[in-house]
UniProtKB/TrEMBL annotation:
Residues 1-24 form the signal peptide. Residues 20-128 form the CBM2 domain. It comes from Nonomuraea mangrovi. This is chitinase. Its EC number is 3.2.1.14. The lineage of its organism: Bacteria, Bacillati, Actinomycetota, Actinomycetes, Streptosporangiales. Belongs to the glycosyl hydrolase 18 family. Chitinase class II subfamily. Keywords: Carbohydrate metabolism, Glycosidase, Hydrolase, Polysaccharide degradation, Signal.
């Protein structure tokens, strides 16, 4: 019996020794794509603690260029370029030994191919120990440019560093031993995104992204920094005005609105009879004369298509052709200098891009194209408005997103929901566009002109000036500071000239002088 007991003890010990590695299999993280609906996707990461002790986890991974993750749940998320970091939410403690947890996120666009470079607490997400000696991620990067070159600089990476490699996409552009590099041979007004990685004999660090646009962008027929205002071709509680009453502070006047007909894509316009009565008589001929008078004062006038009740639909090749033909005819008839896309009830990026390129071929290089998306439309590059802006970037004048009537929204740091009506909100949301493909000269801030003009997001004009300074110079910021300065930020838009009149012209008289004083 003693012998048998000894044998049993030895067998038990052997089984225990074999089982130990399974109990201490390590910390792992597994990604699954929970859903994909064409314009976006839902991801899930499951973390399993196969160690013998509780652990606080840190998951990091990259997503391909062109994809972004605007929101996550059951984790705290931060972002640097295409690199994302997730840590436990504030209410969660360490993950117990043998336990599992998960977090989820939404991203865009759809057809997501998956994540890359996944690590958990520095080790591979599949388990194992961290590679000893791999350098840390380079510090925050910045860029300056000329018409043919972009100069980059970044903070020193931790650990043993042999040098730094600068990539554009998957292409290695240069290798340096210091913390700066210059990429030459570029064209004027080109936007490039580079990734800087530290390396040594063991491997490469996580990347640090930086984007910049070469100098030489033409600002077209508008000032370097300009003010846009919408003029009402209808009656509402705001002051009714003839176009001739628009003050000198406005550089670009958007006529609200061109209307749809029963023919898909067709746009029509005429002076609203109710407005004509309210201002003591106003004919189409008088309106055209006022457009010509604004031109004599150096101003530009465009036709805005859409609005809250707008039903203009461009969802086919035939509709795109009809849109281009009808808008061009209105430009010739009334003297409009371009078109503003303000469709709040559906937009097809493919066919609207076709329509605008056709209009450009008819109107020539002086055509002004602006867009007025809602904040939700510019949260992700997979959204139709954002897709449209990027697809016509070569002919687009400016996007003046409506930073109002939206509630709290995520900014480009993807780390917090910022409240509308604040400097943080305006800067953090403009930063999404600036860091995802649009040039600074194509981005402007759209705000209400004062009480009555919007249901939410009304700000003092002085805060608009602060937001412009924060974007242009990284001064006068709130708690959110953008990753770099954008001195070419284009300006501001307000809804509307009529509401500005109702509020003693406070918006235009405050913001326009500030724009004139910007470098």
């Amino acid at each position: 019996m003693r012998l048998r007991a000894s044998v049993v003890a030895l067998i038990t010990l052997a089984l225990t020794l074999v089982a130990l590695p399974a109990q201490a299999a390590g910390l792992t993280a597994t990604f699954t794509k929970a859903a994909d609906w064409g314009s976006g996707f839902e991801g899930k990461v499951t973390i399993t603690n196969g160690t013998a002790a509780p652990v606080a986890w840190n998951v990091q991974f990259d997503v391909p260029a062109g994809y972004s993750i605007p929101s996550a749940w059951d984790a705290t998320m931060s972002r640097s370029g295409q690199h994302y970091t997730f840590t436990p939410p504030s209410w969660a403690g360490p993950l117990a030994a043998g336990a599992s947890t998960s977090f989820g996120f939404n991203g865009g666009p759809g057809n997501f191919p998956g994540i890359t470079g996944c690590t958990i607490n520095g080790a591979s997400c599949g388990g194992g120990e961290p590679q000893p000696g791999v350098p840390g991620q380079p510090g925050v990067a910045s860029a300056t440019s000329t018409t043919s070159a972009i100069s980059l600089s970044w903070g020193t990476a931790s650990g043993t560093v042999t040098g730094y490699r600068v990539y554009e996409g998957s292409t290695l552009k240069t290798t340096v031993t210091g913390t700066s590099a210059t990429i030459t041979g570029l064209g004027a007004c080109e936007t490039h995104t580079y990734t800087v990685k530290a390396y040594n004999s063991v491997g490469e660090s996580a990347g640090r992204d930086v984007s910049a646009t070469t100098a030489g962008c033409t600002t077209g027929p508008l000032p370097r920094h300009f003010l846009t205002g919408y003029w009402h071709n209808f009656v509402n509680p705001a002051v009714e005005l003839k176009l001739s009453a628009v003050p000198a502070e406005y550089d670009l006047v958007a006529i609200a609105f061109g209307e749809a007909t029963s023919t898909a894509g067709e746009v029509v316009f005429s002076v609203d009879p109710g407005l004509a009565t309210a201002v003591g008589g106003y004919t189409d001929a008088q309106f055209k004369a006022d457009v010509a008078a604004l031109h004599q004062r150096g101003k530009k006038v465009i036709l805005s298509v859409g609005g809250e009740a707008g039903r203009v639909q461009v969802a086919s090749a035939a509709a795109a052709t009809k849109f281009a033909d009808s808008v061009h005819a209105l430009m010739q008839n009334y003297g409009f200098d371009g078109v503003d896309i303000d469709l709040e009830n559906g937009l097809n990026a493919t066919y609207m891009a076709q329509a605008l390129r056709s209009l450009r071929s008819k109107a020539g290089s002086g055509l002004i194209i602006t867009m007025a998306p809602q904040t939700i439309d510019m949260q992700s590059t997979g959204a139709e408005y954002f897709k449209l802006a990027l697809s016509i970037k070569d002919i687009l004048t400016v996007v003046h997103t409506q930073f109002y009537n939206s509630g709290s929204m995520l900014g480009c740091d993807q780390n917090a929901a910022y409240s509308q009506g604040t400097v943080n909100f305006m800067v953090a949301l403009a930063c999404i566009q600036l860091e995802n493909g649009l040039r600074p000269d194509q981005v402007a801030l759209g705000l209400p002109a004062g009480p009555g003009a919007a249901g939410g997001g009304i700000v003092a004009p002085s805060l608009v000036n602060q937001a412009l300074d924060c974007l242009a110079k990284r001064t006068s910021c709130g708690s959110f500071v953008p990753p770099r300065a954008y001195p070419d930020i284009r300006g501001a838009m307000t809804w509307s000239i009529n509401w500005d009149a109702s509020n003693n012209w406070n918006f235009s008289k405050t913001v326009k002088p500030h724009l004139q004083g910007m470098p």
